[in-house]
Specification:
The protein is mainly alpha-helical and 285 residues long. It has eleven helices and two strands. The protein has one domain.
Length: 285
């Protein structure tokens, strides 16, 4: 595959996937509001919240499958989704590394006096808030999976075929960072830089392990620990559907302020710690 062909497919794919995700997210938000207001049991609302949270993932998998099977004439397993005996172990490794590095910088923020932990609605009325909590966890999980399928899956695959590993790692990370800037135009510049670093770490893991399982675990763990567990701000808004709510202050460049921990130097520190953990569990070719 020539680089021109790869870039043409990449452009078409990103347009299609962008439109599909925009529509599916709008549908998810609409249905989620309806589920939250249903006069039904906690189990029923929790189940429905989990189901509707999977809508964007279904859209991303569907579009990606069409491109892989009918445009590239390949199997979806080409993207690194082949299940093997150590797949779940790699997911667990990635999630554990994310848990460790985010926890370290979270505690650092508390010790510096920049993070104040407060009680959430979940702690006050667990059963009533359970559907929102589970919906948030599934939302973060599915977002982690479909972003990895998109960026470290199909985008990485195209660039690897056309230009080799080094270009695929760097370029897919740039596309990943740009996608986050487009999604949130008011994003702090350090967030885009950290997104690039995260994308680079995930792409390196994708290349050396030959699969998406370790990047999926890292991405999922990072999002869930930051949001539903520690209740850190997300995209400029407080996250109040988690176990606790964290009120972040201090310099924007250091803590990310009310935008996200990923938008500050503490987020960069977490990525540096993650890099050490990933080196320890990622085999070299």
């Amino acid at each position: 595959m020539s680089l021109v062909q790869a870039c043409s497919k990449l452009a078409a794919y990103l347009v299609c996937i962008g439109l599909a995700l925009e529509f599916s997210h709008r549908l998810y938000w609409h249905l989620n509001k309806q589920v939250s207001s249903l006069d039904a049991s906690t189990f029923c609302r929790s189940f429905l919240s989990a189901v509707v949270a999977c809508i964007p993932l279904g859209a991303a998998v569907g579009i990606t499958t069409v491109f892989v099977k009918y445009v590239d004439k390949r199997s979806i397993s080409t993207l690194g989704l082949t299940y093997t005996g150590d797949s779940l172990t790699r997911v667990a490794y990635g999630a554990a590394i994310a848990l460790g590095c985010v926890t370290v910088v979270f505690l650092t923020g508390i010790l510096m006096g920049f993070i104040e932990v407060k009680r959430s609605k979940m702690s006050e009325d667990c059963m009533a808030c359970l559907p929102l909590f589970l919906g948030g966890v599934i939302d973060f999980f599915t977002a982690s999976v479909f972003e990895e399928i998109i960026f470290r899956g199909y985008v990485f695959f195209l660039l690897l075929e056309a230009a080799g590993a080094e270009v695929a790692i760097v370029a897919s990370s740039i596309v990943f960072a740009i996608a986050h800037v487009i999604k949130h135009p008011s994003i702090p510049i350090l967030y885009a830089f950290n997104a690039f670093i995260f994308g680079t770490l995930a792409a390196i893991c994708r290349y050396f392990t030959g699969s998406l399982w370790l990047p999926i675990g890292l991405h999922f763990g990072w999002n869930v620990v930051s949001g539903p567990i520690f209740g850190l701000p997300y995209s400029g808004k407080p996250y109040d559907k988690g176990v606790v709510v964290s009120d972040v202050s201090g310099p924007m460049w250091l803590t990310g302020g009310r935008y996200s921990l990923d938008a500050g130097v503490l987020g960069t520190l977490a990525l540096m710690i993650a890099a050490v953990g990933l080196i320890a569990v990622t085999p070299l070719r």
